[in-house]
Amino acid sequence: QKEVEQDPGPLSVPEGAIVSLNCTYSNSAFQYFMWYRQYSRKGPELLMYTYSSGNKEDGRFTAQVDKSSKYISLFIRDSQPSDSATYLCAVQGNFGNEKLTFGTGTRLTIIP
Amino acid sequence: NAGVTQTPKFQVLKTGQSMTLQCAQDMNHNSMYWYRQDPGMGLRLIYYSASEGTTDKGEVPNGYNVSRLNKREFSLRLESAAPSQTSVYFCASSEAQASDRKGKLFFGSGTQLSVL
Questions:
Q1: Looking at chain B, which residue has its C-alpha nearest residue A99?
Q2: FRET partner for A23 with CA separation of 20 to 30 A, picked from A9, A73, B95, B116?
């Protein structure tokens, strides 16, 4: 079993729709949860960063962590064509200098 | 502000050839990383360097070597390239030693490597 599972998509939605992207993880020791956005032929860039459970909102983006079910989500409201990218979830423990574990990424296309 | 700079952007090698991928960051970060990204596999850590003078193996180190030349530069070397090393390679850096900055990686734009 992979430590982080993510539906690879692709996912296509019309402009203005609400997008929901999800990951599950297996290790309850993970404490830090991140979403990275990767445009075609570019490196990933950090989009959202959450510690432990709860919600975090930044403009049209909301990251949600449910540690009881080991489930993390990213919601995009009022989606725009510029949101078309691959979204990678990532998790990290809290023991020293731990490395990130990434999901495989979900390719999202927003249709104008 | 350049951030993380990788060279080259594209490279084609023949099996058995060697090459070095260069990476430099100008953010004064302590930690640097090399990842490879393959379809369906996501980002996998090859090697990392928690600080100048130290390097450690990641998830897929076989066939690679690294050098942390100084705080800014971290290079990845393929001594004898194999077709299985065809991939997109990303360098990244972070202030990973600070707990409130854990997981905040800054990536370069990648090197597309093909081994024939």
A1: B103
A2: B95
